[in-house]
Amino acid sequence: MTTTPASDHWVLTLSCPDRPGIVRAVAGAIADHGGNITESKQFGDPDTGLFFMRVQGETTIARDTLLATLTPLAEQFEWTWNLDTVGRRIPTIIMVSKAAHALNDLLFQQRAARLPIEVVAVVGNHNDLADLATFYGVPFHHIPVTADTKPQAEAELLALVQSTGAELVVLARYMQVLSDTLCRALEGRVINIHHSFLPSFKGARPYHRAHDRGVKLIGATSHYVTADLDEGPIIEQDIDRVDHEMSVEEFIALGQDVERRVLSRAVAWHAQHRVLMNGHKTVVFR
Amino acid sequence: MTTTPASDHWVLTLSCPDRPGIVRAVAGAIADHGGNITESKQFGDPDTGLFFMRVQGETTIARDTLLATLTPLAEQFEWTWNLDTVGRRIPTIIMVSKAAHALNDLLFQQRAARLPIEVVAVVGNHNDLADLATFYGVPFHHIPVTADTKPQAEAELLALVQSTGAELVVLARYMQVLSDTLCRALEGRVINIHHSFLPSFKGARPYHRAHDRGVKLIGATSHYVTADLDEGPIIEQDIDRVDHEMSVEEFIALGQDVERRVLSRAVAWHAQHRVLMNGHKTVVFR
Amino acid sequence: MTTTPASDHWVLTLSCPDRPGIVRAVAGAIADHGGNITESKQFGDPDTGLFFMRVQGETTIARDTLLATLTPLAEQFEWTWNLDTVGRRIPTIIMVSKAAHALNDLLFQQRAARLPIEVVAVVGNHNDLADLATFYGVPFHHIPVTADTKPQAEAELLALVQSTGAELVVLARYMQVLSDTLCRALEGRVINIHHSFLPSFKGARPYHRAHDRGVKLIGATSHYVTADLDEGPIIEQDIDRVDHEMSVEEFIALGQDVERRVLSRAVAWHAQHRVLMNGHKTVVFR
Amino acid sequence: MTTTPASDHWVLTLSCPDRPGIVRAVAGAIADHGGNITESKQFGDPDTGLFFMRVQGETTIARDTLLATLTPLAEQFEWTWNLDTVGRRIPTIIMVSKAAHALNDLLFQQRAARLPIEVVAVVGNHNDLADLATFYGVPFHHIPVTADTKPQAEAELLALVQSTGAELVVLARYMQVLSDTLCRALEGRVINIHHSFLPSFKGARPYHRAHDRGVKLIGATSHYVTADLDEGPIIEQDIDRVDHEMSVEEFIALGQDVERRVLSRAVAWHAQHRVLMNGHKTVVFR
What we know:
4 copies of one chain form a homotetramer.
Chain A: E1 8-17, H1 22-32, E2 36-45, E3 50-59, H2 63-77, E4 80-85, E5 90-96, H3 101-111, E6 117-124, H4 130-135, E7 140-142, H5 150-164, E8 168-171, H6 180-185, E9 190-194, H7 206-213, E10 217-224, E11 234-241, H8 248-271, E12 275-278, E13 281-284
Parallel strand pairs in A: 5-6, 5-8, 6-7, 8-9
Antiparallel strand pairs in A: 1-3, 1-4, 2-3, 9-10, 10-11, 12-13
Pfam family, one (chains A, B, C, D): Formyl_trans_N
Function (chains A, B, C, D): Catalyzes the hydrolysis of 10-formyltetrahydrofolate (formyl-FH4) to formate and tetrahydrofolate (FH4).
EC number (chains A, B, C, D): 3.5.1.10
């Protein structure tokens, strides 16, 4: 976060125990500095008693001054909070195996400036997608994984996260399961796309099981990765219609478009700081 | 099935082991009698090796003659088949508890001639919906159910099925679980609406569990009832979008509209003979 | 608006020229009285320079005191504003012709407490829907309309609006076109459902024209009525998929379900004060 | 079309005046040669009196023999018909300007074997997308267009169509309007994607006009190109939801994903011979 003498467009996200006075305090702090709110959303969860807020604003004061103004409020109201620049491209590592559709969409959207991420590396346990990464000017790292080499592979990934300053890891149909250790090390920073409408069809081969069950809709779910496979907080889901004529291969083909869309939306919202954690659920200020 | 001297618009549905010659045989039989096909759909399932067909046609011959023409084909090709009049209103019993939304839609659609069913009775284990049935001119039967009285209640229902000639029983948010015996007695003739997107959230309180899981879509599923709760062949499903702001009550309210739509579609397709059984799945010639 | 000694759950809506300080002022006023915000949404339109806000809050002060607190702010910031009780059922007149689907849904939703309106009268230019209104305990007024009697008919309607205290008039597939005079007299208080996806197929027989055009989706649009037919600010729209097999009658049947849904959503949001006017468009704080 | 001694999987499409006997004749011809139908769909349009059919089958006879069998039927029943190999990749030219999203999706789908086309050339009136075409190994032709050079540019395109044997031209957000002459020369072989839900917002800047109108849904339409701009037979449409918060740029970004999807579906169906012309409408055997 740098100081900006001219107009600074920032985004503040916070969660805390719900109580009166939070909004007045934030609005007051902004107004006191002649700031202007460009977007503001909030939610008080009656079940958990938590309050969530996402405020975008423009001020001409230095970022440090803004921080100094907000810090006492954060302490007073016990915020879990974050202050960032609107539109800052989040350094991101995308992990892939062989399927290209999700990676292709993320790289395309990033280049078209529709996704506020900066893909600093693509990591594949196979080499298949190296040329796609190269086309988009992104370094590709081939990190194979076997049962024996998994710890070293995960260590290599963590090292890459550190060396690149990656703040987000996206599993774009990456087929290896992350160890509990890695999940905890990267908690809150890993987004996965699961090719089913969770909680239906957790685990492997969801399209085959969906086809066998005779469902009339298939779906995809993007979620934060936790140690429990496919159980992490859901960010976004979507579906498409299938029918008796379609083979499993056709389910897969159709599903790939849903996966692509759902993952790209989730990554965009996360990068825009629109997703806040609410226990095992998410608040999405879309 | 009655004989009709003038133009007879009938619908034939059949399933059988897939093999060459079925279509030619059916089309030939129709053409031989100067008949005209008004709609025809077919599907060969490579997984089960079964062939399915639904043909609507118009002929001027007597229905008995048509039957006599088709019966040898049915034997030759080992059909499981049905011949009916297009648009014949299927005698139907609707079972309800307290929630009115599904019943209200079915009765309204029936009166508007959008649903080819004839509701011969509404059965409720509570009395709440008696006036709604009465408004639509349908007899209401209050058949309460407790753990002790369940066998008698089910016997009463079966007797009603017989006395009314009902060919279809629709569980319109009927909250009692049918016994295995009843399921088998009415096999293939009972359609239920489950208020979740199966196989997610089988059983009780699906909206509460969906809300707790933090899903971003809720759904409803209509299916044929089998002895396994919520496991029967799925006929239709649909969803609607929810978000973090919505309470469980709001999930329920939104979900009721999905339930209503999904059940009405399923009942319409079944009554139009558009749904064929394919193992534990359905072929829906919509 | 009555004074409430206990907890008063109110909703404030406002629009005004956008400028810094509005949110702090509102939040401050609420906090000063020990109030708690239960929901808050806002939007600043960069195109029109207008600011919109909808705040729900709970305070224990008298309503008059709250008004007294807000009035100076309203003057200072030049608000167009409204303060009402959350959940107050808006007195509503529903106008119909022969088609029952929209009326049936509104009356059903109202009785199920899903629609915060109180239907004080149903007005039909035909008598067909009298029994439906009666079933729901709502007075039915048959006000026929011919080219000659239109002025008297509209005068009768206006008189009914006044005598019932109706704050909203819903045209639920009412087939007469309101005169410019009536539109102006009831400006902002009349919601219509048009059976197409505007701006496609304005005017008469939209399903026939959609069928002829060979569109693959049909839709419905609810909007505020203005003197320009089908041009008023759009509140909500939705669609459903059609195909080459469907006749015009099937378009109509499918479309009725979209009309029903779209109209009910629009009426609910209006009654909850979630719809604000933004020139010829709407802001919908759904 | 080549002769195939082993199993030949072919697809027959036909349209003709509706009359009894067509299906029996086709089914009979197939059965006579020991063939097996793998998919069959048909539709008789009561409005136009036309009959449409798409049959996929497998036979072991030579293609010439099959043709010889079908030709007399074609004459007898006055078919407009086509016989092709299932899965044959249709030689296709894609025309682009600057926007990459549609081209990117078509090339990606083609490489993933999800689109039965063979892109023989990409033609752009700008050079921007040359590298994308090159990445996918497809020749890129820069054919600039000004008011003066348009006839030569179109002649160059026609020459390319001939030299490559292209059977389909896809306008993937190509911003030049084709002349009447070119439209007629390529009649039935040009698919365009228009970035609105036709017939709303024909012509230029549809997203700006949609944004100004305050619609709550935006859409895209793929259609065959005729001399009347944006009037050609519609193949497919889809929509996505927008709201008051979204700027025109956000409409455009969201709309691009709809355009991409709708165009790819239309091209796939056309290439699979699933789209038949029915006057100014299409029959889509999807």
